[in-house]
Write a structure and sequence with these properties.
By secondary structure, the protein is mainly α. Helices cover 70% and strands 1% of the residues. It is built from 13 helices and two strands; from the N terminus they run ααααβαβαααααααα. Helix 1 packs across helix 2 (41-59), helix 2 runs parallel beside helix 4 and helix 10 crosses helix 11. The radius of gyration is 19 Å and the shape is globular. It starts with a helix and ends in a 21-residue tail after the last helix.
Length: 306
């Protein structure tokens, strides 16, 4: 394998491993910008993967499976919002409860519907623009699935929405100063419900990518902590969509690297290599890349004006 081939293969793997993280992280930004800590991203990813797999098999249509998965992720987000905003449940406890419930339900569903992951799923086909997929490096970006191009579109759209619209201003105000936002006539509860619901929709798309593009089967626990790595990417990216997606690329590149190092048989215990993405996530969480300042109201159970 030439250096160009190796780099192309490594870049392709990095993109594949980063996309689920990026969808979940973009969703998490909206939730956390509104002041709701979203530990439930892991469960939302797993929900998207399971629902898209189940519906795609039953309907033999991946796009119906994708739409139903987005809807299911949004419902899960609204449940998290209801627990945190209306019932004032501790946000960390609510997120962990959702993760545990989804983990158990999808594990049971996998054994009933998918014979514990041995059934192949219909996959989302790639789009080969102008037949240029064989071009070195550039061809990788011209031969991707529609979810990849949707992600590329979402990055500037989310950035514009958060920082250049009146709704984005309301979102940031609720996350920073909910009492001032309420005084200005903004419904804190409504903004948080919408934000966390939208967070679930985006995170579930990461699960759809895992099940219908990346591996094309479903197995219990297949999210493998990606929701928590997405949270680290949000912190690493300072709650900004562009920076956060770049952080996801870093984590994806680290995971792709450890998979390739294992193939070289360097007598390094594979357990240490598998730790690499999580070590990078921990370094991000302790602020190695600089101090990150979260939204002031993030994680507070009783926001004024709700």
């Amino acid at each position: 394998m030439t250096n160009i081939d190796f780099f192309s293969d490594y870049l392709s793997a990095t993109i594949r491993l980063s996309i689920p993280l990026a969808f979940a992280a973009l969703g998490g930004i909206f939730s956390e910008r509104s002041g709701i800590l979203n530990i439930a991203l892991e469960g939302m990813l797993l929900t998207g993967a399971f629902v898209s797999a189940a519906v795609s098999i039953s309907t033999e249509n991946v796009w119906i499976g994708t739409l139903v998965a987005i809807f299911a992720g949004g419902i899960l987000g609204l449940i998290h919002a209801y627990l945190c905003v209306s019932l004032k449940v501790n946000q960390l406890v609510s997120g962990l409860a959702i993760n545990l419930a989804v983990s158990g339900l999808t594990a049971y569903g996998a054994r009933v519907l998918f014979d514990s992951g041995t059934i192949a799923l219909p996959g989302i086909e790639t789009i080969n623009f102008l037949g240029l997929k064989d071009l070195p490096i550039l061809g990788i970006f011209l031969n991707q699935d529609p979810l990849f191009y949707l992600l590329l579109l979402l990055i500037p759209v989310c950035t514009y929405l958060i920082f250049n619209t009146s709704w984005g201003l309301a979102l940031r105000a609720v996350g920073e100063y909910p009492q001032a936002a309420a005084t200005a006539g903004i419904s804190v509860s409504l903004v948080r419900y919408l934000s966390v619901g939208f967070s679930g929709c985006l995170a579930s798309l990461g699960g759809v990518y895992l099940a219908l593009v990346h591996v094309q089967f479903f197995t219990e626990g297949m999210s493998s902590g990606k929701g928590f790595i997405a949270l680290a990417a949000i912190i690493f990216g300072r709650w900004h969509p562009v920076n956060t997606v770049l952080a996801c690329l870093l984590f994806g590149a680290t995971e792709a690297l450890q998979l390739r190092v294992q193939a070289f048989n360097l007598n390094i215990p594979y357990q240490f290599l598998e730790m690499l993405p999580y070590v990078i996530a921990l370094l991000a969480l302790i602020g190695l890349a600089g101090k990150s300042t979260p939204p002031a109201a993030l994680g507070k159970e009783r926001g004024a004006g709700e």
